Amino acid sequence: MSLNxxxxxxxxxxxxxxxxxxxxxxxxxxxxxxxxxRRKILNDIARTAKRxxxxxx
Amino acid sequence: MFNNFFHxxxxxxxxxxxxGTLIPWLAIPCLLLTLAGLYYGLVKAPPDYQQGDSxxxxxxxxxxxxxxxxxxxxxxxxxxxxxIWRIKLAEVVAISSAPIGAxxxxxxxxxxxxxxxxxxxTWWVWDARLTSELILLFLYLGVIALHNAIDDRRTAAxxxxxxxxxxxxxxxxxxYSVEWWNTLHQGPTVTKFDKPSIHLSMLIPLLLMAxxxxxxxxxxxxxxxxxxxxxxxxxxxxxxxxxxxx
Lengths: 57, 246
What we know:
The structure holds two protein chains of two kinds.
Chain A: H1 3-8, H2 13-56
Chain B: H1 2-9, H2 12-44, H3 58-85, H4 88-120, H5 128-149, H6 153-167, H7 170-180, H8 200-232, H9 237-245
Helix pairs in contact in B: 2-8, 3-4, 3-6, 3-8, 4-5, 4-6, 4-8, 5-6, 5-7
């Protein structure tokens, strides 16, 4: 099987690759979201703690 | 001692650490199985005698549809455990499952639609299978919206659990829709009692992808649950300590 044939998918290339592409995007987004959220929460907590420490001194 | 063990396991701090250790051990096998599944599904498996190469969408579509129902049952089950025994961790798992379940439901619907266009000649029909799966998506979105609408996290968890439990009724409807009603969607080929009517060369990638998706859910739900635990425990000493270190 040639690479061209592989991408052509017997004429269904558009449908097959769109499906796999959307799946890849959705699954990656679901992994990136909690990674970024965790960073955000921890930064947020650290910032609040620092502000409170400054206020108390 | 037995009780003590469960108590410790379910303590947020312990869970946070344990989940962090487990994630790579689930993510790496997930990646390997996905690569194997893609190889066997896109390269090795022969074209279908009726559908040509378009059937390869199945390797995403069917596992995604299975996951959409599986995650819903896990979410409702965890919600019920949270309601009955007031286990916080169960509430965390329930709400962390919702966006992942919604994503798989979305994927099942969209890939089904993209597969339907060349095979059925239409992107969408209001047949029982498609409609009940669309209702599942709305149930997930309802759970997420309800959780966001209530400020108190424990009250929100209780409300979400009740909504999720009511929606469980939809799961057998999705599963049996192709038998109870005359649908355009084809009947089951794998999950039936006699031998699956699918060739081994196509069954192998399908099962590889199905297991990969299960592992994916397992580690992503842990990632999300860790965030939810941090939010809930943000005023405790160990979370503050953790935040200072980063």
